[in-house]
Amino acid sequence: MGFYEITLKGMHKILKDFKEDQYADIVEKCIDQWQKKHDTYCMLQEFADKGRFRTFKFKSQDFSSVEQSFWVQQLFGGLVAMMIQLAQFENQKKNVSIDFIRKNFGISSDVLTGVMCTSCGKRQTSFLDIDKYISLPIIAKRIADGLEKGSLDDEIDSITSVSASEIERERSNAKLRVANTSIPVFDSSDTPVCPSCGNKKFTVCKFLKSVKEPVFIPLKS
Questions:
Q1: What is this structure's pTM?
Q2: CA dist 132 to 115, 178, 187, 190, Å?
Q3: Which long-range contacts (CB under 8 A, 24 or more apart) does 51-54 make?
C-alpha cells in the first residue's frame, strides 16, 4: 500500500472515530477511486473551493477536552496537508521516500504565541499556545512513522488520546523555557486576565526560542 492510500485511510479513521460518518463516506469513496483508477482528483476536489470539506469542522461535543479537540484537529490538518502533497507527487509520477518525507514535512517552529495586555504591556501565554508550539514536529513524526509501518492507526490513537510520550516531554521542555523567561501561563479554557493590572483586553504577541539559552525572547509587536 502506498503512502497516499495510507494517508486517506488515516483520514477516514479519524472521521469515523469522531462520528463524522458523512465525511468518512466521502473519503471512503475517494479511496475506492484511488484503488480502481489511481484517481487523486476525487479527493483533491473535496478540499477545493467548492468541495464538501471546504467548511468542515469537527463537532466540539465529541471531544472530552479543549486539549483533545486541539490535537485531533491538528492531526487531521496534518493528514490533509500530507494528502495534498502526496497527490501532487502522484500526479507528477514522482516517487517519494520516507526519508524525504521525514526531512521535508512538519518543520519545527521556533515561535511561541501569547497575548499582551493593551494597558500595561504584560505578556503571557496559555497551555494551548504551548501545545501549538510543540505540535507540528510531533504530529509530523507520528504520521511519518505510520507511513513507514504501512498503517497510521496506532499513531493516530496516540495523538487523539493525547497519550504520545513525546507530548508530555516536549511540553515539559517548553514549560521550562516559559518559566525561565518568567512568562505567566493561563488555562486554555479561561478568558485571560492581566496578572499585573487586571485588564481583559489583549493583542497577540510572540516569543522566539533562544538558541543559546533555555528561554524565549519576546518579539516586538
A1: 0.92
A2: 14, 14, 14, 17
A3: 52/23, 52/26, 53/23, 53/26, 53/80
